[in-house]
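Researcher: Let's run the pair from yesterday's discussion. Sequence first, then tokens, for each.
Model: Starting with the first of the pair.
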Amino acid sequence: MSSSGRPPPTPACSHGPPLVDGVVYAGSEGGTLLAVDAVTGEQRWKTAVGGVVSSSLTVSDGVVYAGSADGNLYAVEAATGKRRWKFPIGKRTLSSPTVSDGVVYVGGGDRHLYAVNGPTGKQRWKFATGGAVYSTPAVSDGVVYVGSEDGYLHAVTR
């Protein structure tokens, strides 16, 4: 703790951190994920990932999902920070993950939209676009919507 009673600063956190059940979850340019008590400011855990955390985090069913500049999607336990799995996308991941019905949807710099099984980290499918996918997917009525650098809004049936 610093003299202010707060944890020492971490490298920049450039995306809005989710607040779930009194805990703030953040990713940093230093390649870490961390959980901080929203009331006390006490750090609960800190976990290293392979690169800059370049997307907003998503918390669902006790799991934190984060894209990283190392080309991977990470899933860690919200309570402990322990890594559940790492899914290789292959290129920088700027897209923020979206979770719907136990499936994690995320875009990649490799021009694909991915559907990944939340509990296992196994790929369910991937959809090729004509450009990098840096936008956050939206899911409604069985359709996944995502913008791509090819200039199109893609609608993909799950």
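Model: Moving on to the second of the pair.
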Amino acid sequence: MTFGIFETLAFACLVLLLGFFIVKRVRFFRNYNIPEPVVGGFFIAVVLYILNSTMGLSFKFEGSLQTAMMLIFFTSIGLSAEFEKLKKGGKPLLIFVLLTGTFMLVQNIFGISIASLLGINPSYGLIAGSITLTGGHGNWCSMGAKSNGYIPHKWRHGASYGLCYVRLSDGRPNRWPSCKSAAEKEKYKTSQ
């Protein structure tokens, strides 16, 4: 079954709405801040896999809008940044930025070193480093699109491993709801 541009876009919207529906009703996803597109997409991926493996149905979606939509999405996130919020962050935000930059450098040095020791192209070490671990799936996709097939598909797993590690290692701060006061957060923490 092949979907054109409009059908693919409509299907993506339905998947997103399904994600909102599931997250709203399943506490686990809310507690761990699992994004609605991820929940809806994973659910549909499982359904499509089952349909393919049991009934032999295959689905092909139009991919020409993927790059444009990713650019719009990440640009909209960047446009939502405000200088006032950065100033409000103060010293803790500065420390966070410095630590993030340091860890990105460590990820890249480690990735390049391991790639060199294994005798593979050192740029693969960058891909397994901060490109996927810090940049995530979107960063991998944008790098993959620019590489003309140079970056193998299997390297996207670095983003998945990083995401899973962060979510499963210590989810307590992620489980705090968006409370208006510290007292509400404290009440929430003690109720868990």
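Researcher: Give me one sentence on the second I can quote.
Model: The chain has two domains: 1-81, 91-192.
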